[in-house]
Amino acid sequence: MKLSRRSLLAAPLGAAALAADPQRWTARWDRAILTAAVERTDPAFDPAENLLRQKLGPEYHYHTNLRDASVHPTRESLDYALLLLETNDDARRQRALAILDRVLALQDAGPDSRWLGLWGYYSEEPASKMSPADWNWADFLGALLLEVEFRHGAKLPAGLRQLALAAIRLAAGSVRQRNVAMTYTNIAVQGTFVTLAAAELLNDSDLKQYAQDRLTRLARAIDETGGFSEYNSPTYSNVTIANLTRIRMYVKDAAARKLALAIEERAWLHLSRHWHPPTRQLAGPMSRCYSTDIGYPFWIQKALSGAIGFASLDELADRNPPGDVARLDYRCSEDSAAWFLLLEMDREHRELFANAPAGVEPLQGATFLGLDHCLGSVNRGSFWVQSRPLVGYWGGPDRPGRYLQARLLKDDYDFASGLFYSVQSKNFVLGAAAFRSPGGDRHPSLDPVKDGEFTCARLRLRLDLAQVPFNAPTLVNGQDADLGEYPAGSRFVVDVGGALLYFKPVRAAFGEPAGRLTLAREQGLLTVSVDFLSKGAARAVRWPDAAFCAFALAMHAAEGTLEDYDQYMDGFHLAHRLERGSVKLVWKTAWSDLALESPTGVAAVDAMDRAFRSSINAKAVPVERLSSRKLL
């Protein structure tokens, strides 16, 4: 019998057939995850400090000034204490109580302190010494302390419990004082859980009114677009769903639970439409991401009651499952679950992420989900290290980690002043890299480029191709190609091992015409670079009048010879022209005519966005909401 979404929906994940499946998620899985997480973390415990110990290297880290140091993290230590309490082992409980006492003492409790209610990342660096403090730590540690209270509070020593309740009050106060925008999705949701739960726990009617109003504002922000501003993030979608799950588990107010459940179902709907079953990856684009290969998201496996298996019960310990999966009652609605399990045919998904002022195109993504590969792009994005404005996957679940990622690198680190513009139709993308000023270096705001000048040894647009065989067939301008340099404007095709990739930088400049193509092997990746500034000695650089790279990219199933594919792609008319302040491209593809106009100068991001235009078949790109159903 052919498996279809209809048949999957007709057989709910909790039905008898699934109950008989040995991979179905049960309490045994939670216990296995808990045991694995505790045993994995035990060696990092430092009894002299009653905290976990970790080593920081010399590399750049947000917010902290510490480098090359042995440090003691607060959040990870508190999470470990909660895991120890979950074991119900007396010896481990004593260690947990010692950690809890130590972490509580590290909260800033000064009544006149600017950082009241906050923790530093590490015991060695309180919030007041950070660069700058991360206000999210009130949300993260506040949520963990609430879990400690709800799950183990009655068994804590009375004095320690009162200290924990006082810390929850201070953390909730910090969350309320900060009052983030509801478009900061994961923190908007996490802080809503913290304030809702703390208000009920502490019987604080004023805080409860704030928290209920905050939940309403969150729902209204989602209703503006039907989806989420912080879109398709492998890490922060989990944070969002985890805290909506906590509301469902711990908050008593019926109206708040009902509205939070509707938001939770919308979050699963959002993820399900981007999920690519053949590769078991979230197809791009992604607003924020820490690892392009998402690995083993066991929280999704649990939410689907084991219908997707990233590991068997016997394999769990070797896959480093996070301990919170054992504590949280993850559930995916049946309507969304079916989309995780089966892709019946190629499909295209468009989704609105944020509205825009007059004269600026709405922020939205386009995702092609094919039977053997996927490709996604956002129409307006950035090249910050956490952004994935253009990303693709191929290779199937038995060959994880095969991906394409577009990056803009300054001295081999993602340049936060880089901007990305694109238009996509199915598996064809017209794109452009540009630059903003003012902007950031390694972080959009914490590390600014000052006075339009920065130091740089090399500046380039780079395509990272992961797990491409060393003998992968490769052509440049129709000829067999080895690693090395090629003229600007060269076209590149490669059989990446399960899919075919086409890439052509149409025009590039950084003051003077630029765009030499370089094929290399770097950090285990096959890389294709378009140089703005070729590698040399570090030098001071000022923004020129023109700085951009316009390109065309496509992915196809691996059929026929690479020579045939190169000729096929070269047959699609691709034209461009430079006008004052912009580059205009038109690409007549197999599916439609794509047109892109991108700014070539360097200006503030608002001005750059206003100069961007795109169309498909000479019409505005369709704006499609994830859902038209209102939460309120």
Describe this entry's structure for a reader.
- There is one protein chain.
- By secondary structure, this protein is an alpha+beta fold.
- It has a domain at 369-616.
- The strands form seven sheets. Strands 7, 8, 9, 11, 12, 13, 17, 20, 24 and 25 form a ten-stranded antiparallel beta sheet that branches. Strands 10, 14, 15, 18, 19, 21, 22, 23 and 27 form a nine-stranded antiparallel beta sheet that branches.
- Helix 7 (158-178) crosses helix 8 (185-202), helix 8 packs antiparallel against helix 9 (205-225) and helix 10 packs antiparallel against helix 11.
- The longest helix is centred in the first third of the chain and has 21 residues, at 158-178.
- It is globular.
- It starts with a helix and ends in a 16-residue tail after the last strand.
- The relative contact order is 0.09.
- The model is unreliable at 1-20 (pLDDT under 50).
SSE blueprint and pairings:
Blueprint: H1 5-10, H2 16-19, H3 27-41, E1 45-46, E2 51-52, E3 54-56, E4 69-71, H4 74-86, H5 90-105, H6 136-152, H7 158-178, H8 185-202, H9 205-225, H10 236-250, H11 254-274, E5 275-276, E6 281-282, H12 298-303, H13 324-327, H14 334-341, E7 347-354, E8 363-369, E9 373-378, E10 380-382, E11 390-394, E12 403-410, E13 413-414, E14 418-425, E15 428-435, E16 453-456, E17 459-466, E18 474-476, E19 479-480, E20 484-486, E21 492-495, E22 499-510, E23 512-514, E24 517-522, E25 525-533, E26 539-542, E27 547-557, H15 562-570, E28 574-579, E29 582-588, E30 593-599, H16 605-611, E31 613-616
Antiparallel strand pairs: 1-2, 3-4, 5-6, 7-8, 8-9, 9-11, 10-14, 11-12, 12-13, 12-17, 14-15, 15-27, 16-26, 17-25, 18-19, 18-21, 20-24, 21-22, 22-23, 22-27, 24-25, 28-29, 29-30, 30-31
Helix pairs in contact: 3-4, 4-5, 4-6, 5-7, 6-7, 6-8, 7-8, 8-9, 8-10, 9-11, 10-11, 11-14
